[in-house]
Amino acid sequence: MDINDETKRIVQELGSAINAAVEKSSEVAEAIDRLRNEGFELELTLKMEIGLRPVSDDDSAESETSTLDLTADDLRTLRQMKIRIDDN
Q: What's the confidence (pLDDT) of residue 74?
């Protein structure tokens, strides 16, 4: 699926907003501090894939679908950031 420049810009803004939320999270900072207190230095890499599909009034229309594989840690982090992931 081809997306226009405006859509690309919005997706980049979303990624930046999520990154900023993680950086500002007191819970993330506290967990990092606890790891440092245990003698570890943390390297945190979050993989995020944003899948887009056009909205269609016709449920029978073919659409591209994507999956997002999240670990238990990913889900916990998202919940802490008040981001809900539906399983459907």
A: 81
Number of domains, the chain: 1
Domain membership of residue 87 (yes or no) is no
Q: Is the pTM for the entire model greater than 0.90?
A: no
Q: Which contacts (CB < 8 Å, 24+ apart) does range 10-15 have?
A: 11/50, 11/52, 14/50, 15/48, 15/50
Q: Which residue do the tokens 């399983």 mark?
A: 87
| CA-wise closest residue to 85 among 64, 73, 68, 61 | 68
Residues in the chain where the model's pLDDT stays below 50: 61
Cβ contacts of 85 within 8 Å, gap of 6 or more:
68, 70, 75, 78
Residue 44's nearest CA partner among 26, 62, 57, 31 is 31
